[in-house]
Design goal:
single chain; 973 residues; alpha+beta; OB fold (Dihydrolipoamide Acetyltransferase, E2P); five-stranded antiparallel sheet; five-stranded mixed sheet; 26 helices; RNA binding; 3'-5'-RNA exonuclease activity; RNB domain-containing protein; RNR_Ribonuclease
Length: 973
């Protein structure tokens, strides 16, 4: 955000420049009630509508004026002439203006499109794993792409592989070949160009013969004709009333709408031209509509709340007219900023505290409006749309004399800290709208609401068996009570982090006494569906939330603690007092080769539950992850010299043997996996532990000025490379459980949501033997060692088909389902309800809890919710590791035993991409992995040609704290 030179101008706000469409979109039925029909007016304004048109033009002028871009001009020295000439250069003719030798020079638009995004935006990896099935983009499809505020229309030539990623080769009407990611595509019209013609075009940047040249000329001609057709429709369509029709009736709430729904508002039977036009208008109106990622799959927009729209309009108007209220705010804020910055610097090594303000600061209503605007601007954005906050934020930062080459999100966060709005330890991830409370608060409305519902369900009216259930009613009795299998005194090991609270899985082993070497491995999973029906309010909320969110200081669970740890219900394993714990148990029969040869799913009862930590199990198995180099502490710290004491519970000899047998069998299963699969990727992961801070300080408020000092103490910084014995053992059992759940569903004809993942695609299949020699004893490789051999890393997808999952060892035709975390993940809840219907009925199940259509819709909504959770987790993790490095580099790191920073210290990095230009950077920037620190960084290099996988020396340079914090380094040849 806040990048200078943002592409705008009035033409960007008029219906001529952007949009996209998925091939199935215009035929998709509406997912909501028939929307209100909006007036479609293709005629010039009349006296009756002049006022509305004036208002529209005024708003468009306001937005355009606040987002002006510099004219795209170049100083060109013409051949054989000695003077400089300034003129506009048509992008498509750049190669004719600049004399070059060799390949054609990329147009300015192509260079801007391919430019890496700068500090002012957060573009979570373009190639991220969304979990959604891919929208097919076949060669010959007409496509529209957006990135870095550039929209381009062209034709797909096919798939290419670069930087170990899959890209599209797109031919533009100017004759260029661009290589966008699939996530850059916003509109697809399949079968636009015949296969025979598109094949003759080739995939290279320039044609190699006359046949390719002629084919490309014909494609360019057809593409330009299509663009003209689309532009005519986009210029004719009118959408002035759409926002009012689709916004939430609650002024402070956002809404959501699909492109298809809006298209049906403006025309009765929308065709692809109408879909394009609607999408174009909505993309070009970021004041009201925010594209919902991943847009190619969702084809939906978040609709800004009326309150936020009015807030943005107000501050934009003040900025445009140079309103004195902005200067008055700046004059009041400057001394506060200076005073706060000095105090935080002086107290950096002191404990965190919130002090009574030495000088009372009274923000008036205009000040609060400006501060609220700045807070709202602090959110991750992706550059497929303009950001309406950009220009006003830049203007305000300049007025406050913030000095930075490229004003960005990190400058805005720093400003809000110095204004006393945020604490110096404010984590941006916890103040996003998807997080209901920034920190634990037993009195928060969100938490109180859930606890109130739980209390009513536990103590209120109990419906009789067979009686219809209300939205706050639990099952009258356990639906599976009559079919539960009692596992007797079999020891069940619940292995997790020592601090874990939602204990939802246990494991056990049962040898088969026939000397065949085979055994049963059981995964005993918490069974909340024994109490909770899918119609319950808390169940519906859990399906919307998707999964629990975990932060260092608190968590956002799916269910309230009064249910999770209720001794009568026993949802969390080991919490049910005096009674057997109900489980859903997944059993796999493992032969002496490590293969699954039989399977069972049963409703279970377990009695002998042993809760034990990963560290304790490692000690029992005589496995020291630190001694083996799996866990390192590159900065030292208090636990480097004095490792924590691990308490190992006293277990009977037979239970210790059972644990060791479990480890032995899971290693056998891993060996089977290595015989049938190539490699699994394990990137090093950095993690920090941080001390406490004053309660309430993470909850920001623009209402009053707060005086902070000091900073929390860091307790530890670790880098984990690979799996330990205990966590690897548990992971293998959970993978088996997922395969068993999918196979059981197939046996009983149950529709089930599954997770699939293809094998890694290699550049050269002959490299398989090389990789087998490089991989570890458990089949793992570091990403940087593997990347030079990889054409593309696969991404997982949710599907109803029993497809293969390479990393879990699921064959094609048996599939893998997520069934092991029903207390933490809504998808697992759905799987349990579905399996429950089979356990209650004879095979094949005649009645299922959910239909295939419902599951098909839910897998999309869950994948989107899961993606949001992943982004929040990435943001949270990168903030605290980056904050640690920033404090370490600045000599302000609170904590015992950590090393001090040496400015001249060099670290070894491994190049992870081909690099690119960044705004306001003089040199090329590469992504690099620094294994010793467990971090990825942005490394600036002075034009050196670096290959993916190349080892380089680098020096740390800067840390930028934001939605996705980054660490900058410089290449040292």
């Amino acid at each position: 955000m806040l990048r200078q030179g943002t592409r705008s101008a009035l033409a960007q706000w008029l219906p001529r420049r952007q949009c996209r469409h998925s091939s199935s979109l215009w035929n998709a039925p509406s997912t909501s009630a028939q929307p209100t029909k909006l007036p479609v007016r293709d005629t010039p304004p009349t006296k009756e509508n002049t006022k509305d048109m004036d208002e529209l033009l005024e708003e468009m002028e306001l937005l355009a004026d606040t987002m002006k871009q510099k004219e795209r001009t170049e100083q060109v020295k013409w051949p054989n002439k000695g003077k400089q000439t300034t003129r506009k250069i048509p992008n498509e003719r750049l190669s004719t203006v600049i004399p070059v030798n060799g390949d054609r020079v990329a147009s300015i638009e192509k260079q801007a499109f391919l430019q890496q995004e700068g500090e002012g935006s957060t573009n979570y990896d373009e190639f991220e794993d969304t979990g959604l099935e891919k929208v097919p983009i076949l060669p010959g499809s007409f496509i529209v792409t957006r990135r870095n505020d550039i929209m381009t229309l062209g034709v797909s030539l096919g798939i290419v592989f670069e930087d170990s990623r899959e890209k599209l080769a797109m031919f533009t009407p100017t004759g260029e070949v661009w290589k966008p990611f699939e996530t850059d595509v916003t509109f697809v019209l399949p079968s636009f160009i015949p296969p025979s013609l598109i094949e003759r075009c080739g995939l290279l940047l320039t044609p190699v013969d006359e046949a390719q040249l002629n084919a490309r000329a014909e494609v360019a001609k057809r593409t330009r004709t299509m663009i003209q057709d689309l532009e005519r429709r986009a210029s004719a369509i009118r959408m002035r009333h759409v926002y009012d029709a689709v916004k939430s009736p609650r002024p402070h709430e956002m809404a959501e709408v699909t492109v298809a729904e809006v298209a049906r508002m403006v025309t009765k039977n929308p065709r692809y031209q109408d879909i394009f036009a609607v999408q174009l208008h909505m993309m070009n109106d970021p004041l009201h509509f925010i594209a919902k990622e991943p847009f190619l799959a969702t084809q939906a927009f978040d609709v800004r709340s009326q309150w936020e729209v009015e807030l943005i309009q107000t501050v934009l108007r003040w900025t445009r007219h140079g309103d004195p209220r902005l200067q008055a705010f700046a004059d009041k804020a400057k001394p506060i900023i200076a005073r706060t910055a000095q105090r935080l610097k002086d107290t950096a090594l002191e404990p965190p505290a919130v002090l009574p303000a030495a000088t009372e600061v009274e923000w008036n209503e205009d000040d609060k409006t400006i501060i609220t605007f700045l807070k709202q601007a602090l959110r991750p954005v992706r550059r497929n749309q303009l950001d309406p906050f950009d220009t006003a934020c830049t203007s305000i930062l300049r007025m406050l004399q913030v000095s930075s080459t490229a004003l960005g999100e990190s400058d805005l966060l720093h400003l809000l800290v110095n204004l006393g709005v945020f604490a110096p330890w404010q984590d941006v991830s916890v103040i996003q709208r998807q997080v209901p409370e920034p920190e634990y608060d037993s009195r928060s409305p969100w938490r109180l609401k859930k606890e109130k519902i739980a209390k009513k369900s536990l103590t209120g009216y109990k419906p009789a068996p067979g009686e219809p259930l209300g939205p706050e009613d639990f099952y009258a009795t356990d639906p599976l009570e009559t079919v539960r299998h009692d596992f007797g005194d079999m020891p069940i090991f619940v292995i997790d982090d020592a601090s874990a609270k939602e204990l939802d899985d246990g494991i056990s082993i049962e040898w088969i006494p026939d000397n065949s070497g085979a055994c049963w491995i059981h995964a005993h999973i918490a069974n909340p569906t024994a109490t909770l029906p899918p119609t319950h309010t808390l169940a519906v909320d859990a399906l919307k939330q998707g999964s629990s969110l975990y932060f260092k200081h608190h968590s956002i669970p799916l269910f309230p603690s009064s249910l999770m740890y209720n001794p009568d219900l026993g949802w969390s394993l080991g919490t049910r007092n005096g009674k057997p714990t109900r489980t859903m148990t997944f059993s796999a029969k493992i032969n002496r080769f490590g293969d699954i040869v039989d399977h069972k799913v049963r409703a279970g009862l377990i009695n002998n539950v042993r809760v034990i930590s990963y560290e304790a199990v490692n000690k029992i198995l005589d496995f020291d992850p630190v001694a083996r180099g799996i866990v390192t502490r590159p900065f030292g710290g208090p636990l480097a010299k004095n490792p924590p004491i691990v308490e190992v519970p006293a277990l009977p000899t037979e239970e210790v043997k059972a644990l060791k047998d479990l480890y032995k069998v899971t290693r056998l299963r891993r060996k089977w996996w290595m015989d049938h699969h190539l490699v699994s990727v394990w990137p090093p992961a950095a993690s920090t532990k941080v001390g406490d801070w004053p309660a309430g300080s993470m909850t920001a408020t623009p209402i009053r000025y707060r005086e902070f000092q000091g900073f929390p103490e860091f307790k530890d910084y670790t880098v984990t490379i690979g799996e330990g014995a205990s966590d690897g053992m548990v992971a293998e059992v959970m993978k088996m459980a997922g395969i068993v759940g999918s196979k059981f569903a197939l046996d009983h004809g149950l529709p089930m949501i599954r997770r699939s993942l293809d094998e890694i695609r290699l550049l050269n299949q002959d490299d398989e033997e090389v990789i087998r020699k490089l991989r570890s004893s458990s089949g793992q490789m570091n990403k940087w060692d593997l990347t030079p051999y990889v054409a593309a890393f696969p991404t997982g997808q949710y599907t109803l088909e029993p497809k293969a999952h390479s990393q879990c060892g699921a064959r094609d035709g048996e599939g893998y389902a997520r069934v092991t975390s029903p207390l933490r993940r809504a998808l697992d809840l759905v799987s349990h309800w579905q399996l429950q219907s089979a356990l209650l009925n004879k095979s094949p199940a005649k009645v299922t809890t959910f239909s295939p259509d419902w599951l098909d819709n839910f897998k999309v909504s869950f994948a989107l919710a899961e993606l949001t959770g992943k982004k929040l987790d990435q943001s949270h993790s990168s903030y605290w590791t980056s904050m640690f490095v920033k404090k370490w580099m600045g000599g302000e790191l609170r904590g015992d035993g950590f090393s001090t920073w040496n400015r001249d210290a060099l670290f070894e990095g491994i190049v992870s991409d081909v690099g690119g230009r960044r705004p306001c950077k003089l040199h090329k920037v590469h992504g690099v992995d620094v294994p010793a620190l467990g971090l990825s960084m942005d490394m600036e290099t002075a034009g050196d040609y670096l290959k993916i996988g190349q080892k380089v020396n680098l020096r740390l340079q800067e840390v930028l704290l934001k939605s996705k914090s980054t660490i900058g380094a410089v290449h040292v040849p």
